[in-house]
Amino acid sequence: MLVVVAFVNVAWSLDHFGILSTIPHERAFPDRPWFDGWSRWDAHWYRTIADDGYTYTPGQQSPVAFFPSYPLAMRALEWLFRDVLIAGIFITVACGFAVTWLFHRWCLRHLSAASARMAVLALLLYPYAYYLFGAAYGDALFVVAALGAFLLLEDDRPVLAGLVGVIATAGRPVGGAVVAGLTVVMLTRRGVLTGAAQAAGARVRGAVALGRLRIDPRRLRPKDLAVALSVLGLAGYCFYLWRRFDAPLAFVEQTGVPGWDQPPGPRTWFKAYFFEAMQLPQSPLNYVRLGSQAVFTVGALALVPAVIRRFGWGYGVYTLLVVGLPAVASKDFTGMGRYLLAAFPCYAVLGDWLAHVAWVRRLRVPLLAASAAALMLFISAFSRGYYLS
């Protein structure tokens, strides 16, 4: 239902508010607004990769900044939709449905049914959740691959978990968070990595104590190591860049080129650009865009201890890295709105609070309604060409 509402919102916004837009003159689908509104900004980079492959010009914006999972999927389905952008939109929609199902399934393993429902609502009504509804971006594919990998690992299928993890690590630069999270979840589930309290009274020969942690590598099975297969997506892309352009980390260099202007360094890490931007006169939407992403990022990081307590160290490590790495690399939190979709354990914590914490439960209707209203506003703005995340 939300997908239908989102598509209607896109078409209606373009038909009725076209004058209040920043849509480029060369539109992807000028006669089909329900598709055109989802084909903004990075969508055109993905189309270029799917149509023409990768190119790299040092010091200039180049397609190598974008990882290959999503454009490869677009290219693979072009035969079905006759256009790679339409293929990308349908990939996002399909992945959005899959994310909803997989996330609900994951929540039911760790939470009550009421908490699981609230967690799904918290995710789907998040103001930047439109990247799961149709936007031709790779975020939905990354999230579904990460969720699928963790669920497969919990089903004791580490080989399949590692292989699905390849899609995630070939989809986003922060794919290493999936590798680290899968590894720690595997170690704790196998009893290789335990807290000192758990190990008290169980002095096992061959176990090694590190502070409050106890490591017993003898509990590992050979197939458990298969979760390391997940790193092949990132490694494969780096190998391709090395062979093709002699620049295995070209995507890192791209962050600092003119137009993206996020070179690694203290001004980026400590958000000097963000504080400068918030002091400049600009449109109210830009204040909302930057401010909301900063607040959501800080909030997600603040939830990491709750994630660890509720779901364990593996999901805590994953959440910390999948939020923390892009937060450090972003000069002004731009992009964090959609990157936070991957922090699914945070939405599970919020869902648990919405279902069971008394004062939060009393506020859940206005909170979810306000979030839904912001989501509809952001969908409309995105479709009309405003850069939000």
Number of alpha- plus pi-helical segments = 21
Beta fraction: under 5%
Shape: globular
Unreliable stretches? 196-211
Provide mean pLDDT, rounded. Answer: 87
Q: Gyration radius, to the nearest Å?
A: 21 Å
| Main pleated sheet | 3 strands, antiparallel
Overall structural domain count: 1
Q: Into which percent range does the helicity of residues fall?
A: 55-70%
> What's the number of extended β-strand segments?
3
Biggest β-sheet: strands ordered side by side in the sheet:
1-3-2
List the helices and strands in order. Answer: HHHHHHHHHHEHEEHHHHHHHHHH
Gap between N and C termini = 24 Å
Alpha-beta classification: mainly alpha
Organism: uncultured Acidimicrobiales bacterium
Keywords: Endoplasmic reticulum, Glycosyltransferase, GPI-anchor biosynthesis, Membrane, Transferase, Transmembrane, Transmembrane helix
GO molecular function: alpha-1,6-mannosyltransferase activity; GPI mannosyltransferase activity
GO cellular component, one term: membrane
Structure description:
The chain crosses the membrane at residues 84-103, 160-186, 225-242, 290-308, 315-333, 339-360, 367-387. The chain is an all-alpha fold and 389 residues long. It has one domain (2-24, 32-383). It has 21 helices and three strands. Helix 7 crosses helix 20.
